[in-house]
Amino acid sequence: MLVALYGATIGKLAFLGVDAATNQAVCAIFKNGIFESKFLYYLFFHRKQDLIKEAIGGAQPNISQTILKNLEVTICPLPEQRAIVSKIEQLFSELENGIANLKLAKEQLKVYRQAVLKKAFEGELTKKWREQQTDLPDAGGLLEQIRKEKEKAAKKAGKKLKQVKPFTEDELEDLNRLPKEWNWVKIGNLTLGVEYGTSAKSKESGDVAVLRMGNIQNGRFDWSDLVYTSDKTEIEKYLLSKDDVLFNRTNSPELVGKTAIYKGEKPAIFAGYLIRINQLSELAVADYLNYFLNCHIAKVHGNSVKTDGVNQSNINGEKLGNYPFPLCSLPEQQTIVQEIETRLSICDKIEQDIETNLEKAEALRQSILKKAFEGKLLNERELAEVRGAEDWEPAEVLLERIKAEKAQNGKK
Predict the structure, then answer these.
(1) Helices (H), 254-321
(2) Which of 68, 211, 274, 293 could form an S-S bond across to 259 if both were Cys, CB 3.0 to 4.6 Å?
(3) Cβ-count burial 380-409 (b if 16+ within 10 Å, e if not)
(4) Are strands 307-308 and 245-248 parallel, antiparallel or unpaired?
(5) What domains can you pick out in the chain, each with its CATH number?
(6) How far apart are CA 3 and CA 10, in angstroms?
(7) Helix (H, G, I), strand (E, B) or coil at 155
(8) DSSP at 203
(9) Which ranges of the sequence are coiled-coil (predicted)?
(10) DSSP 197-245
């Protein structure tokens, strides 16, 4: 059996299955007549954290051979070791099947989430709702509303209105069909401009949190790993307002383009790898925009326009402004958000239950090993069977025999 002595793999275990040599980072424990190999493996697996705690050194702690030799271990007759290994593997097999089913359910939830979002942005979730409305604007009315609201916002902000190039017929052909009351527009139609975050260096403490790309998790902000700033100029310029939607412009190819919505949880600004969209609230409900940017349609578009570098991809503000957006009336956007959240809240509850059960499964694994090496895993019938084996002998007899063998080998 091999034990990794230091580095990122410290405490890892394996059997040597081929002819090989080891280096100084690995220690080999040679098979002998005291332990069944798998019994030793599960024993060390159970005691792994004890070993790591004994490791010496700073940045790269090391398990020495002396620490290994001084590790106190449980010993029992060889037939009992084999029976314990068999029982462990039977229970672990059942446990792994349960874990596999939980992980499958977790993957199926991801598929369901995307199915909900797909139907939401095809108008399916609010089809009956639309049939009950009498005063919804048509697609042309929505475009006129965009023009008026943007002109009003530009005048109020003292900005020159930037024209957004409409979709071509060919581009519209590549997008899915929308209800007649909806219209495909570009995200640039919903805003007077996007805004990049601060490039100033953050600190471990300060007056205001700085949200980074790692804080965006599943369309929400994770507040558990924060950096801070006390720079008043930066805070004034980049302070977030409730319902700001932030877009991750630079990340690994699979994560670039993720978004989250700021709900005013605590004062915060945003870092340079994020873009604030600054959508006009008269045109787009923030949650509707956030859910759309996390759906399959938006992800596909992002993959088609991103620029790939070494381990990093980028979607700049201009490309973000050209993202497609399924525009419908504000009341319908609000209704869609309610329909989505009703369904996804059930998903969240199921997912939490799955995570709880996965944690319980890991605890159960350790409980099985604890019982095994306390002599409590085998029942009386199983113990009676192993005590009838030809090579059964009490542990103290086994140890005396090994001691005698070692003494004889020492003389040689």
Answers:
(1) 286-293, 296-305, 317-321
(2) 293
(3) eeeeeebeeeeeebeeeebeeeeeeeeeee
(4) unpaired
(5) 2-92+394-411 (no CATH), 137-328 (3.90.220.20)
(6) 8
(7) helix
(8) B
(9) none
(10) -B-SPPBSS-SEEEE-GGGEETTEE--SS-EEE--HHHHHHH---TT-E
Closest to 121 in 3D by CA, of 306, 324, 345, 346: 324
| Amino acid, single-letter form, for residue 384 | A
Per-residue pLDDT of the chain (412 residues; tens, 9 = 90+): 889 998 888 889 988 778 888 888 888 888 777 888 899 999 999 988 888 888 887 778 888 888 888 888 888 888 999 999 999 999 999 999 999 999 999 999 999 999 999 999 999 999 999 999 988 888 788 888 898 998 898 888 888 888 889 899 999 998 989 999 999 999 999 998 899 999 999 999 999 999 999 999 988 899 989 999 999 999 999 999 999 999 999 999 999 999 999 999 999 999 999 999 999 999 999 999 999 999 999 999 999 999 998 889 999 999 999 999 999 999 999 999 999 999 999 999 999 999 999 999 999 999 999 999 999 999 999 998 888 888 888 888 888 888 888 888 776 6
Cβ–Cβ < 8 Å for 95, 360: no
Within 10 angstroms of residue 209's Cβ, the number of other Cβ atoms is 21
Residue 327 CB: number of other CB atoms within 10 A? Answer: 25
8 A C-beta contact, residue 294 and residue 258: yes
Burial of 300 (0-12, 13-18, 19+ CB in 10 A): exposed
Q: Which amino acid is at 297?
A: I
Q: In this structure, are residues 246 and 286 in contact, taking their beta carbons and an 8 Å threshold? A: no
For residue 385 the two structure tokens come to 């069977």
Q: How far is Cα 181 from Cα 126, in angstroms, rounded to an integer?
A: 12
Residue that the structure tokens 């709880």 belong to: 356
Residue from 70, 40, 77 nearest 396 by CA: 77
Sign, CA torsion 227/229/234/237? positive
**DSSP string of 255-270, one letter each residue:** TTT-EEE---SS-EEE
- Would you state the structure tokens that stand for residue 273, as one six-digit string? 């790898």
Check residue 134 and report its DSSP letter: S
Q: Which helix (H) or strand (E) holds 27?
A: strand 26-28
